Amino acid sequence: MRLNKYISETGVCSRREADKWIEAGRVTWNGQCAVLGTQVGEGDEVRVDGELLGAKKKDVYIALNKPVGIICTTETDIADNIIDHVRHPQRIFPVGRLDRDSEGLILLTNNGDIVNEILRAENNHEKEYIVTVDRPITHLSLQMMASGVKIMGEITKPAKVQRVDPKTFRITLTQGLNRQIRRMCSALGYKAQRLQRVRIMNIELGNLASGQWRTLTPAELEGLLPH
User: Fold this and answer.
1) CB atoms within 10 A of CB 191
2) Which residue in 59, 77, 84, 99 is the catalytic one?
């Protein structure tokens, strides 16, 4: 394993930061000053500033009920960022995003490989939302949402849509265009007033309180992780 990946997987910093530490001469490998591209094998000893690095960090997978106003960014100099909100001891990042005005289920992890697996469009992973609009929505509009709406120059993929009450509906998407549901509503003459994600694949928001997070269960991970 490359040295920068080894260092980042212990959770102390990112790969980019690790490269800076190596270039600055702060990292030793088996007692020698390490260089960029050094390969770390079983039993090798890596130290930063003389401190022995621990074992590879444990993978973290959590579900957060994101409140309105929290921003899905790892940049901690931005106010209301998701990282400061969660305050997890490990270095984690969100899988995909929910815009600032939306709420509900978002996953966070320290495993970069799983992010691509979940976000890759051709995998057609389901995400389910409950949406409330500014006026009663017609049956025809719901049918159009289900069959596809033209936004940003393309027709959205077919979706599952179910009415909840006169102004509220459930929609299950298998794609994730930028602000897709809000744009679909707008294209049909509605304004989305509340947008809550309640499911990602096999993981349900359930009764998780707004602003709270929990670790995914083994059963949830079984359905989430590629086999």
Assistant:
1) 11
2) 99
For CA atoms 122, 124, 129, 133, the dihedral sign is positive
Q: What is the pTM of this model?
A: 0.77
Block means of pLDDT (10 residues each) for the chain, 227 residues, are 87 87 93 91 87 77 97 93 92 90 96 76 86 98 98 96 98 94 98 98 96 96 79
* Cβ-count burial 166-188 (b if 16+ within 10 Å, e if not): ebebbbebbeeeebbbbbbbebb
84 part of the active site: no
The sign of the dihedral angle between the CA atoms of 212, 217, 219, 223 is positive
Q: Is 179 helix (H, G, I), strand (E, B) or coil?
A: coil
Q: Which CATH number fits domain 61-121+203-224: 3.20.20.70, 3.30.70.580, 3.40.50.720, 3.40.50.10190?
A: 3.30.70.580
